[in-house]
Amino acid sequence: MMIRSSLENTGYAGKKNQLADSWRDGAGQIRLAKSTISNLFRYTGRGAAARSLSLGAFNEVIALDAERRTLDVEGLATFETIVNHCLPQGFLPLVVPELKHITVGGATVGIGIESTCFRHGFVHDGLLEADVLLPGGRIVTCSADNEHSDLFHALPNSYGTLGYILRAKIALAEALPYVHLRVSRFDDARSYLGAMRAATDAADIDFVEGLFFEDRRFYLMLGRFSREVPQVDDVLRKNIFYKLVQARSDIFLRTPDYIFRYDPEWFWNIPESPFHTIFRRYAPRQFRNSSFYTKYSARKKQFVEAIVGARDTGIEPLIQDWEVPWQNAEALVDFCLENVSLDGLPWAALPIRSPRQPTLYPIEAGELYFNLGCYCQVRRPEGKAPYHYTRIMDRECFDLGGIKMLYSSTFLDETQFNARFNGPAYRVLKDKYDPDGKAPTLYSKVAHTA
Ligand SMILES: Cc1cc2nc3c(=O)[nH]c(=O)nc-3n(C[C@H](O)[C@H](O)[C@H](O)COP(=O)(O)OP(=O)(O)OC[C@H]3O[C@@H](n4cnc5c(N)ncnc54)[C@H](O)[C@@H]3O)c2cc1C
C-alpha cells in the first residue's frame, strides 16, 4: 500500500498539512519511498515493507537567512539542490557529502561526513531544528533544548526508525567560488598522519582529507577557498579526481566540482575500460553522476543474474566507513594495508572532531577521530567466508576503540550491537516515539541476515 502517492506542490506548510490530513493508520510497517536514489549499501535486501510512504515531494529549499547563516530546507532535498541554492549567495552547509543525491535528511540520520569534518563535526552537527514525522503519523518539532530534545539528539544514526525529517534548519558557513587544493605525498603512515593532524589546527585551511594506496603512497590534500584561481581543472570528463591527485601538487576546482569531486566516478566504481573512457568523455552531463551509475549497476547486476544466474564470483562490495580515536589511526592504517587488497584502488582518510555526542553514535565529543573509508568492489581471498574483508576490518576497528557507520551492513549479533550503539537508550526512545512499532528497529534494518 502506498501512503500519499503525491503531494501537491503547495510549499512546505501546504505539503505538511496535506500529509497530516491524509494520514491513515494501517497494518504493517512503513518504509520511505522517494524520487531520488538511495545511498544505502546494505549487503542484503530487506524484502517488501507493508506500507510505502512517499515523501519525495519534500525536496525543496524553503528559505536562506543570510544574517543568521541558516537554511530551512525540506528533508528530502538533495545536497545538489542545496549547493545550487546556497553557493551563489556565498554560503554552504557546514558539511556537504560528496555525492550529489544524498539528501539532508538521509545524511543527518546516516552520519554524513566530508573534508570539513575536522572543523565542524558530522552533517548532523549542523542541524539546529527539525520537523519529524513520527512513525505513527504525528509531526513534532525538535531542537537541542525543546521538549523533544531527546529525539533531536537521537536522530543521528537512527536511519528513519524514529521518524522522517520533513524539514531541517541547518547552519551555514561562508563559501567562495573556487577551491585550491595543495597535494603532498608521504611514504610512511606516521609522518602522513602527523601532517594531517597538524593541518586540523591550522586556522587558514578549509578542507583536510587524504587518499592512500597499498604500495604505501600517502596523499594529503589541504584545501582553501579562493576568489580567483590561475586555471580551472576539469574532473567531470578530462580527469578522474583520485588520479589527478597522484599527478599534481596544485589542483584548482570550481567549488561545486570540489564538493562533488567523487560523484562523476561514484568514487572509483566506474571500471577502467575503453567503453567507460568514451562514456566519461562524451556521455551527456546528466549521466555523469553517481545517481545514474547506481541505477546502471543495479540493472546490470539484475541482467547478469538473469542470464547466468546468481553465482558467487568472489567479487563483493567493501563499501564502508570506520572511525577510530586518533591515537589508533596508525594501527588501523597498518592493519588495512597488511590485510586487505584493493587491487590498486585508494583508501580514503579524514580527520573528524564532533562537538557533541549523539545518543545512538557514541563517540567522544571534542576528541579527534580518524575516519577510514573504502568504496569499491573487492575480490575475496581464496577460501574465505563472504564479506571477509568487511568482517576483519570491523573487528579491528572495534578492537581499536572505534565505531563503524551503518549505511552498509553490520555482522554484530543483537547483544553486541546494543552494547556498541546504546541499545538501552534506543529502546526507551523507540517506546516513546514509535510505541506501536510502525517503523522497523535499527538492528533489523542494518543487520546482515544471510
Ligand atoms: C558508496 C557510498 C558513498 C558514500 N559517500 C558518502 C559521502 O561521501 N559522504 C557522506 O556523508 N556519506 C556518504 N555515504 C553515506 C550516506 O550519507 C548515507 O548512506 C546516507 O544515509 C544516505 O542518505 P540518502 O539521502 O541517500 O538516503 P537513503 O539512502 O535513501 O536513506 C538512508 C537511510 O536514511 C533514512 N532516511 C532517508 N531520508 C530520511 C529523512 N528525511 N528522515 C529520516 N530518515 C531518512 C532511510 O529510511 C534510510 O534508512 C555514502 C554511502 C555510500 C553507499
Could you describe the 3D structure shown?
This protein is of the alpha+beta class and 450 residues long. 30% of the residues lie in helices and 24% in strands. It is built from 15 helices and 17 strands. Strands 13-10-12-11-15-16-14-17 form an eight-stranded antiparallel sheet, with helices on both faces. Strands 4, 5, 6, 7, 8 and 9 form a six-stranded antiparallel sheet that branches. A three-stranded parallel sheet has the order 1-3-2, with no helix packed on it. Strand 11 and strand 12 form a beta hairpin. Helix 11 packs antiparallel against helix 12 (388-399). It is globular and about 60 Å long. It starts with a strand and ends with a helix. The structure holds flavin-adenine dinucleotide. Flavin-adenine dinucleotide binds next to helix 3 and strand 9.
